[in-house]
Amino acid sequence: LQGTSVSLTATTVDHLRQRYARDFRPDDAFVVVVGDIDRAALESALQGAFGAWAAPRDPPSSPRIVEPPSRARVDVVVVPRPAAVQSALVVAAPIPVDVPPLHAPSAVMQTLLGGSFTSRLNDNLREEHGYSYGARYGYEVWPTHHSLVSTTVSTAVTIPALEQIHSELARIREPASVDEIARARSYEALSFPAFLDGGASIAATLASWLERGLADDLIAGYTARVLAVDAAAVQRAAERLVDPTRQVVVVVGDVDPAALARFGRVTTLAVDELLPLPAP
After folding, report:
1. Do 87 and 254 meet the contact criterion of CB atoms below 8 Å apart?
2. Cβ-contact 165, 125 below 8 angstroms
């Protein structure tokens, strides 16, 4: 999906065939259909379309959970873009592999920190300081376990913006106010039905849940669990998921790498160094 001139040039038709044979197979697939259709007619249509699709002899690979590397410090990666008027900033960090999907306290914490337009990061960088058009924080538990802060800022305020991001990552580990928790809780609860808004959304959401093996009761009770989250639960989630001392800061822009040494160990990469060559 992405690559450099070097990696794309080295990719062959055989690479594509091998990837297709590994990832597209009938014994590792399912179909989700949402609409006004008779089940018998649907099964007949599917049989006609996919009935001749033969499975390879080797068993399908098990879903691979990507465990994040252990980190004990902050690393800063700089990708120079001379004369860039903005810096693209990403702060990535591992999160524990046992954080469950649809974990209500973690979701409310995410909303409070950077999951909505009125989140702390957006209020800080956009409304209070005018550094950015917007900033977000989110975390993933499938198939990787990591969190990301992402934003773009004017080149001149790259360092102050990173300082504010760091301060918000530290502050989220402290108790939040009752009003903040109530607002984040309501936002998360009211946003969840959008995942079931219309046929396409229902199909995509169910496909994701089936792929991850989520139980129906986990889904059905999610909103109620969100509305029961309190400040103590949010703080516990933040203490588990957010650690400003263990992260990778990526800066793409026209910034002096030496000025970023205050945040951690600095490495400079050229754009063509970012992606490895495909496997032979």
Report:
1. yes
2. yes
Q: Minimal CA–CA distance to 250: which of 82, 80, 138, 90?
A: 90
Is 148 within 8 Å of 137 (Cβ atoms)?
A: yes
Contact 156, 206 (CB under 8 A): no
Tokens of 250: 């990526």
Could you read off the pLDDT of 215-258 as tens digits, one per residue?
Answer: 777 888 899 999 999 999 999 999 999 999 999 999 999 999 99
d(CA 237, CA 231): 10
The predicted model gives 38-61 an average pLDDT of: 91
From first CA to last CA, the distance across the chain in angstroms is: 18
Residue with tokens 């001149």: 156
User: How many Å apart are CA 146 and CA 65, to the nearest integer?
Assistant: 12
Which has the higher per-residue pLDDT, 171 or 213?
A: 171
The whole-angstrom separation of Cα 259 and Cα 242 is: 24
Query: Which tokens sit at 272?
Result: 């063509």
Residues 94, 138: Cα–Cα separation, whole Å: 12
Alpha carbon 8 to chain centroid, angstroms: 25
Per residue, what are the HEC states of 168-225? HHHHCCCCCCHHHHHHHHHHHHHHHHHHHCCHHHHHHHHHHHHHHCCCHHHHHCHHHH
Q: Are 143 and 82 in contact (CB under 8 A)?
A: no
Distance between CA atoms of 161 and 134, rounded to whole angstroms?
Answer: 12
Determine the Cα angle at 131 with ends 174 and 129, to 5°.
60
